Amino acid sequence: MSMVHNTEPCFSEIMPANNLQTKAKSSYSVFFVDLLCCCWHYIVHRSEHMDESSRIKAPAVKRAAGIMKIVASATAPPTMSEISRALSLGKSTTHNILHTLEAVGWIDRSESGGYMPGASFLNLLHLQSGRQELVELSKPFLEELSSEFDLSVCMGTWEGNEVLIRAVARGAGGMKVSVEPGLALPFMTPAVGRAILLAVDPERREALVNGAKLPSFTERSITDSGEYLKEIALAEERGYAVDDEEYLRGVRAVAAPLILDGAPVGALWAVGFSLSMDDLRVGSAGEALVRATSLISRLAR
Fold first, then answer.
1. Are 20 and 295 in contact (CB under 8 A)?
2. Domains recognised in the chain with CATH numbers
3. Predicted confidence (pLDDT) per residue in 63-122, tens digit
4. pLDDT for res 219
5. If you write DSSP's letter for every residue of 1-34 in order, what string do you get?
6. Largest CA distance in the chain
7. pTM over 0.70, yes/no
8. For the chain, which terminal residue's Cβ has fewer other Cβ atoms within 10 angstroms, N or C?
C-alpha cells in the first residue's frame, strides 16, 4: 500500500439505498451480456499467459484447454473427428483426453454423439460468474462510499488462504491509502479476515483460527487465537470488524462481510490514515459498509 495526495475528509451521509440499488442494477444489466464470455476467458485462456517453457511442461493440459474451448464455443456439439482435425491431434490422443474430461464431468456426450460442456465445468463457470457478478454489483457502492467518507474502499473475494482484491474506489481527493486490484491479502489480515469470519458458523470459525498461525504485521497485531476470537465476537455484535493499526502502522480499516447464498464469499472494507479516522468515523463507515453489503447480497440473489 502506498500514499497519494492530500485533502480534507468528508463526513457526508451515505447515499440513500434506493439510489445505490438503481446504480447497481444498471451496472449489472450491462455486464450480464458478456458474463459467460468473460468467465470462459478466465478459466481457459490463463494458459496463454504462461511462458513457452511452462507450456511445454504440460502439453496435455494445453490440449485439454483447446478441446474445452472448441466444445464450449461450438454452435453444435462437435464430434471427436472434428475436434481432432481442428487441433491437428491424433485420434487416439483426442480420444484419451475426451475420455478423461468426460470422466471428471467437464464434458458430456450429446444425443448426436458430439461433445458438450458437462455439469462439473458448468458448476465451476457458475461459481466464477457469481463472484464476478458480485464485483460488478459492488462497484457503484464502492464509488459512493469512497466519495462520502473520503477513504479508499475495496471489494475482495475469499480465495482459500487469501483475499483477492477485485475492485477499488478512491474518491476525488488525495492523501489516501492506495490499494490496487489484483493484490492478494493474507486471509488473516485483521479487518478483512475478521469480517469474513464473523459470518462463519462458530465451530468452523474456531477451527480456522486455531488452525492458523496468526501473523504479526505490526506490534499491535493480535497473535493469540483466544484474543482473536474475542475480537471476532465483538465484530459479530457490530456487524463489522475494525483494524486499529494492526496491519499497517498509522492506518485503520473497517470491513463488513459479503454474503452469497448464506455463506461469506468476501468483504467490503474502507481504509484510511489513523489521524483522519477517529472512532466516530470508523463506526459510521462500518455501518454504511454493512448496509451496502446487505444490499449487494440481496441484488445478487
1. yes
2. 2-33+127-299 (3.30.450.40), 37-124 (1.10.10.10)
3. 998 998 899 888 889 999 999 999 999 999 999 999 999 998 889 998 888 999 888 887
4. 95
5. -EE--------PPPPPHHHHHHHHHHHHHHHHTT
6. 68
7. no
8. C
